Amino acid sequence: MPNTRFLCLLLLAFVILAIPATSSAQVAVGVSIRVGPPALPVYTQPICPGPGYLWTPGYWAYGADDYYWVPGTWVTPPGVGLLWTPGYWGWGGGLYAWHGGYWGRHVGFYGGINYGFGYGGRGYWGGRWNGGVFAYNRAYNNVNVNVVHNTYNKTVVNNHTNVNRASFNGGTGGTSAKATAAEESAGREQHTSATSEQSQHEHAAGTNRSQFASENHGHPGVAATGKAGDFSGHGNVAARGAGNQNRANGNGGAGHKGANSQGAAHQNAANKGQHQNGAQGNHQPHPGGQGGAHGGGAHGGGHPHGGSGHPG
After folding, report:
1. Does pTM top 0.85 for this prediction?
2. Cβ proximity of 279 and 291 under 8 Å
3. 312 and 175 Cβ atoms separated by less than 8 Å
4. What does the H/E/C string look like for 72-93?
5. Is the CB of residue 105 less than 8 Å from the CB of residue 85?
């Protein structure tokens, strides 16, 4: 019997060691809540710290008893060529379930949520990898061209994303987007989960009561940060009022006009084919705020925490 038990434990150890650090699953479902998350706040995008950083949009996570806002922030990807696919809340079976984000070669499905700054509901238009170096689309990112030299400017017209601030997919008030064949294919690729930097950033948000919906009523004091985990940085920005179109925070450098925030106004302009200068925010194709984004970028996601929030 002792030998048999030892062999079983040894086999279990080998199985654990054999589990890869990456996952090929399209989404990781975590927390399930009966009350939907608040609408996405409107905010501007802090200026990019420098070359090599990628933007990950903010999202509502869920804690012990409330939703709390995890600020959008600039992070370093876990590898060259990887893009972030944001996480999203999805309605089904009477519950709102969180589908965590991930890093991968292509951007997968993120619920059709218009997180802005290049994440307009489908793909990612905020930048691309060129020969191992990330190039930033100034139409969706707030970058100082005197510091970041790998840039280009291209506005993408998005005819497939929501123009409101819905923060969840499905159900009343949510987006109605379904995964495309390309997004499903991206979901089956090899993925890397959120980095420790991203996890620590989310944890820091969950320990700050001012980030909770019951405290800020959907307008967090820290809506975006210049660097992950830094909630007192000089470049941090607060949420703006609902429906406002935010512009990029700070000086984007020569020729840059600032990204727009997550305002629905920006998305409407994009749908009309109007070119906008500067990256939009979280519902617009310009960097100043959470503007609508398009293109095939990776989505991100975290592990939402929080309690009874407000329906989006």
Report:
1. no
2. yes
3. no
4. EEEECCCCCCCEEECCEEEEEC
5. no
